[in-house]
Protein backbone atom coordinates (compact mmCIF):
# COMPACT_ATOMS: atom_id res chain seq x y z
CA UNK A 1 0.00 0.00 0.00
CA UNK A 2 1.28 3.44 -0.90
CA UNK A 3 1.76 5.72 2.06
CA UNK A 4 -0.25 8.91 1.40
CA UNK A 5 2.32 11.22 3.02
CA UNK A 6 5.17 9.94 0.82
CA UNK A 7 3.83 11.86 -2.16
CA UNK A 8 2.50 15.35 -2.70
CA UNK A 9 -1.13 16.18 -1.88
CA UNK A 10 -3.45 15.46 -4.82
CA UNK A 11 -6.91 16.98 -4.44
CA UNK A 12 -9.38 15.34 -2.09
CA UNK A 13 -8.20 11.88 -1.09
CA UNK A 14 -9.64 9.13 1.07
CA UNK A 15 -8.02 9.17 4.50
CA UNK A 16 -5.93 6.08 5.18
CA UNK A 17 -6.60 3.89 8.20
CA UNK A 18 -4.78 5.30 11.25
CA UNK A 19 -4.20 8.64 9.51
CA UNK A 20 -3.14 10.31 12.77
CA UNK A 21 -0.44 7.71 13.47
CA UNK A 22 0.84 7.89 9.89
CA UNK A 23 0.84 11.70 10.00
CA UNK A 24 2.83 11.76 13.23
CA UNK A 25 5.45 9.50 11.66
CA UNK A 26 5.83 11.94 8.77
CA UNK A 27 5.73 15.11 10.90
CA UNK A 28 2.40 16.16 9.44
CA UNK A 29 0.06 18.20 11.64
CA UNK A 30 -3.55 17.00 11.63
CA UNK A 31 -6.65 19.15 11.98
CA UNK A 32 -10.12 17.64 11.87
CA UNK A 33 -13.32 19.21 10.59
CA UNK A 34 -16.56 17.39 11.41
CA UNK A 35 -19.25 17.71 8.73
CA UNK A 36 -21.86 15.57 10.48
CA UNK A 37 -23.81 18.64 11.67
CA UNK A 38 -23.15 20.94 8.73
CA UNK A 39 -26.35 21.95 6.93
CA UNK A 40 -25.57 25.42 5.54
CA UNK A 41 -22.68 27.81 4.98
CA UNK A 42 -22.87 29.22 8.51
CA UNK A 43 -22.59 25.80 10.16
CA UNK A 44 -19.82 24.91 7.69
CA UNK A 45 -17.79 27.95 8.73
CA UNK A 46 -18.38 27.10 12.39
CA UNK A 47 -17.09 23.57 11.74
CA UNK A 48 -13.87 25.04 10.33
CA UNK A 49 -13.65 27.55 13.18
CA UNK A 50 -13.79 24.67 15.66
CA UNK A 51 -11.68 22.18 13.68
CA UNK A 52 -8.87 24.60 12.94
CA UNK A 53 -8.97 26.20 16.38
CA UNK A 54 -9.60 29.65 14.93
CA UNK A 55 -10.51 32.74 16.91
CA UNK A 56 -13.80 34.58 16.65
CA UNK A 57 -12.01 37.04 14.34
CA UNK A 58 -12.24 34.43 11.56
CA UNK A 59 -14.30 36.04 8.79
CA UNK A 60 -16.77 33.16 8.19
CA UNK A 61 -16.49 33.44 4.40
CA UNK A 62 -14.69 31.69 1.54
CA UNK A 63 -11.89 34.27 1.30
CA UNK A 64 -11.19 34.06 5.03
CA UNK A 65 -11.06 30.25 4.86
CA UNK A 66 -8.64 30.39 1.92
CA UNK A 67 -6.48 32.93 3.77
CA UNK A 68 -6.29 30.79 6.91
CA UNK A 69 -5.35 27.66 4.96
CA UNK A 70 -2.62 29.44 3.00
CA UNK A 71 -1.15 31.60 5.78
CA UNK A 72 2.24 30.15 6.74
CA UNK A 73 1.97 31.86 10.12
CA UNK A 74 -1.29 30.12 11.03
CA UNK A 75 -0.83 26.58 9.68
CA UNK A 76 1.90 23.99 9.70
CA UNK A 77 4.18 23.59 6.69
CA UNK A 78 2.81 20.02 6.39
CA UNK A 79 -0.88 19.87 7.26
CA UNK A 80 -3.48 17.15 6.81
CA UNK A 81 -7.03 18.42 6.96
CA UNK A 82 -9.24 15.46 7.85
CA UNK A 83 -12.79 16.04 6.63
CA UNK A 84 -14.88 13.76 8.82
CA UNK A 85 -18.22 12.54 7.37
CA UNK A 86 -17.55 14.53 4.19
CA UNK A 87 -19.02 12.08 1.64
CA UNK A 88 -22.39 12.22 3.37
CA UNK A 89 -22.22 16.02 3.54
CA UNK A 90 -21.36 16.14 -0.17
CA UNK A 91 -24.44 14.03 -0.98
CA UNK A 92 -26.69 16.21 1.17
CA UNK A 93 -25.32 19.60 0.11
CA UNK A 94 -23.90 19.24 -3.40
CA UNK A 95 -23.80 22.95 -4.29
CA UNK A 96 -22.22 23.98 -0.99
CA UNK A 97 -19.67 21.16 -1.17
CA UNK A 98 -18.73 22.22 -4.72
CA UNK A 99 -18.02 25.76 -3.49
CA UNK A 100 -15.99 24.42 -0.58
CA UNK A 101 -13.98 22.05 -2.76
CA UNK A 102 -13.06 24.91 -5.07
CA UNK A 103 -11.66 26.86 -2.11
CA UNK A 104 -9.87 23.83 -0.68
CA UNK A 105 -8.24 22.88 -3.99
CA UNK A 106 -7.18 26.49 -4.60
CA UNK A 107 -5.68 26.59 -1.10
CA UNK A 108 -3.88 23.30 -1.74
CA UNK A 109 -2.35 24.73 -4.94
CA UNK A 110 -1.37 27.99 -3.24
CA UNK A 111 0.25 26.08 -0.37
CA UNK A 112 2.24 24.01 -2.88
CA UNK A 113 3.46 27.22 -4.54
CA UNK A 114 4.71 28.28 -1.10
CA UNK A 115 6.58 24.99 -0.67
CA UNK A 116 4.00 23.71 1.81
CA UNK A 117 1.83 20.58 1.82
CA UNK A 118 -1.93 20.59 2.45
CA UNK A 119 -3.56 17.16 2.31
CA UNK A 120 -7.37 17.09 2.06
CA UNK A 121 -8.44 13.74 3.47
CA UNK A 122 -12.00 12.44 3.62
CA UNK A 123 -12.79 10.14 6.53
CA UNK A 124 -16.08 8.31 6.68
CA UNK A 125 -18.41 8.26 9.66
CA UNK A 126 -17.43 4.96 11.21
CA UNK A 127 -17.07 4.49 14.94
CA UNK A 128 -14.02 2.30 14.30
CA UNK A 129 -12.05 5.08 12.62
CA UNK A 130 -13.14 8.16 14.54
CA UNK A 131 -10.56 8.90 17.25
CA UNK A 132 -11.67 12.30 18.43
Provide keyphrases for this structure:
5 helices, Barnase, Chain D, alpha/beta, single chain, 132 residues, 4-stranded parallel β-sheet, 17% strand, 41% helix
Written account of the structure:
This protein is α/β, with parallel strands linked by helices and 132 residues long. It has one domain: Barstar-like (Barnase, Chain D, 2-Layer Sandwich). It contains five helices and four strands. Strands 1-4-3-2 form a four-stranded parallel beta sheet, with helices on both faces. α3 runs parallel beside α5 and α4 crosses α5. The longest helix has 20 residues. It is globular and about 35 Å long. The two termini are 25 Å apart. The C terminus is likely disordered. InterPro entries: Barstar, Barstar-like_sf. Belongs to the barstar family. It holds the Pfam family Barstar. It comes from Deinococcus deserti (strain DSM 17065 / CIP 109153 / LMG 22923 / VCD115).
> How many extended strands?
4
| Order of strands in the sheet with most strands | 1-4-3-2
Mean pLDDT: 90
Order of helices and strands: EHEHHEHHE
CATH architecture: 2-Layer Sandwich
Span between termini: 25 Å
CATH C-level label: Alpha Beta
Domain module tally: 1
Strand content: 15-25%
Q: How many DSSP helices?
A: 5
Low-confidence stretches: 127-132
| Fraction of helical residues | 40-55%
Question: Could you give me the name of the CATH homologous superfamily?
Answer: Barstar-like
The major beta sheet can be summarized as:
4 strands, parallel
Cα shape: globular
Family: Belongs to the barstar family.
Domain Barstar (barnase inhibitor): 29-122
InterPro entries: Barstar, Barstar-like_sf
Protein name: Barstar (barnase inhibitor) domain-containing protein
Amino acid sequence: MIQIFNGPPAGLQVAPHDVRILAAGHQVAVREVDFSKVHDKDSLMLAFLSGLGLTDRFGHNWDALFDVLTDPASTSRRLALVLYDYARFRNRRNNLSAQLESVLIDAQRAAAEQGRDLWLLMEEADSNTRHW
